Amino acid sequence: MVRISKISKQDIPEEVRKVAEVIENAGYEAYLVGGCVRDLLLGREPKDWDFTTNARPETIVGLFPETYQNNDFGTVGVVNETENERLKVVEVTPYRLESGYSDARRPDSVTFSDTLSEDLKRRDFTMNAIAYSISHETTIDEFDGLRDLEEKRVRAVGQASERFAEDALRILRAVRFAVELGFVIEAETMEAIILNVHNLGRISKERIRDEFVKILNSDSPMQGIVLLEKLGMLQYVAPDLLRGIGVEQNKAHAYHVYEHLLRTLQHAADKKWPLHLRLAALFHDVSKPETRRWSEEKGTWTFHGHEVVGSRVTRKILTGLKFPRETVDLVTNLVRWHMFFSDPDQITLSAVRRTIQNVGKDYIEDLLNLRVCDRIGTGRPKEQPFRFRKYKAMVDEAMRDPISVKMLGIDGRRIMEVTGEKPGPKIGYVLHALLEEVLDDPAKNTAEYLEKQAVELMRLEEHELEKRGEQGKEKREKEEEEALHAIKQKHKVV
Ligand code: ATP
Ligand code: MG
Predict the structure, then answer these.
(1) Which end of the chain is more exposed for a tag (fewer CB within 10 A), N or C?
(2) Which of 403, 393, 394 is nearest to 439 (CA)?
(3) For ligand 1, atom 14: residue with the closest CA
């Protein structure tokens, strides 16, 4: 049982109260509704504030100095002058009717209504269908949402099956709320979910992504994915994960691939790490199933190239879910480089510098954090935190060394000066060739040495020079090609 807080006027920020006053003073009704009421009752801080009213959009717009309208549902954003992000915009939406859904996706049209009751009836779950009047200090709870909150239950408003058939996203929202709040899904609602899962195939990727993100950002994302899988929803969200179920690994792992991924994700959540790290944790080994081979020699499974294939599969998954380009790049990069070797007793600083160069110095910390999750996710983390600390110390040291051409003790202009060469591709090749040397030995990063060496290098044929400059890159590309080639052979696909 949860103790439900009684809402009092004092819990409501001045800016929000003002909005209600303006609407009521003009002779209309104004009720807080949805997530903010639910969160107030649970003693959580509301993320944003939503009103519902019998005023129509044109009327609402006329009541406030600054407003905007950005959707088709008649919602008006009332803009407040404040630095508080949560109060900058208070949304006011006219009472609406649930209108026809011909595609389990979006209502065909929006019809406004004159009564609060009708508006509450169209809402998804009982806990989201409670309204609160600030001026009367009363809660309107027509579907026993308070009782469901108390008993920690997600229950559909009205006929569950009908409601899910209207809009299948609601079934994903049910899981999201269960996971976010630690609630259970009530039996009839659960039955209706199972009956309607297939309708998720018609929901837009953007809407699916938004709920998926909320599940991942909750405190229990592992439980969330488990629920999605058990209810047959995961195939509409990230079907590639399903391939990892029951796929056995080598002795370093207590769990099969799928469970390892979930536990790695959960650790990122336990650490309160941000979304991109949670995504990287969830997908880092997504391609282990298709790269798995039995090694007679080692007497165990190997997964050569799984990070290369996995980064491509991750890109495909995240792009498909319409994640922003920046997130896709960030996560794919972490998946690509998660296999770095980190035994401080066997590794050289130059290898550490190359790891930093591969992932980029802005992302090395994320990569180390991903490794922390990965190790916990094996279920058999080796007890060697001091070795990891030692590796981190090496990273700190290597971070002071040049790891990109921008950090060299020479630039293109100076190379042209000392070699008399005109602008052209050769300058870039020389810079990269110099970086290759400096990555191996940072002591060479002096103007004196680099200038002398630039003159030497410039004597080489252009193609030879290009080869030197691209050594690092070429090695990586060769690695990637080999890994992909092996997969294509195994699966006989293009
Ligand atoms: P959060 O705090 O995460 O924003 P929320 O409950 O506010 O949760 P929103 O997506 O912001 O969720 O929606 C606001 C309200 O609109 C919900 O509380 C619910 O009453 C209603 N609602 C949202 N989506 C649907 C839907 N697909 N079907 C029916 N009602 C919905
Ligand atoms: Mg909300």
Answers:
(1) C
(2) 403
(3) 34
Sequence spans of domains, the chain: 9-150, 153-237, 275-399, 405-490
Burial of 176 from C-beta contacts in 10 A (0-12 / 13-18 / 19+): buried
Q: Note the pLDDT tens digit of each residue in 170-180.
A: 999 999 999 99
Q: What are 443-465's pLDDT values in tens digits?
A: 999 999 999 999 999 998 888 88
CATH fold label, 153-237 = cca-adding enzyme, domain 2 (1.10.3090)
Q: Which region among 80-84, 96-100, 218-222, 270-274 has the lowest average model confidence (pLDDT)? A: 96-100
Ligand 1 pocket member 207 (CB < 6 A): no
Confidence check: pLDDT of 475 > 90: no
3-state secondary structure (DSSP) of residue 207: helix
Report the pLDDT value the prediction gives residue 251, as an integer from 0 to 100.
84
- Protein residue whose Cα sits closest to atom 6 of ligand 1: 35
Q: How far, in Å, from the CA of 35 to the mean position of ligand 1? A: 6
For the ranges 184-198, 329-343, 378-392, the lowest mean pLDDT is seen at: 378-392
Fold of 9-150: Beta Polymerase; domain 2 (3.30.460)
3 state DSSP class of 168: coil
C-alpha triplet 309, 253, 392: angle, nearest 5°: 75
pLDDT at 491 over 60: no
Residue 409 in tokens: 């003790």
Tell me which residue has its CA closest to atom 26 in ligand 1. 124
DSSP-derived secondary structure letter, 1: -
Q: Give residue 263 CA to ligand 2 midpoint distance, Å.
A: 29
> What region does 361 belong to: left with phi over 0, alpha with psi -120 to 50, or beta?
alpha
pLDDT at 494: 33
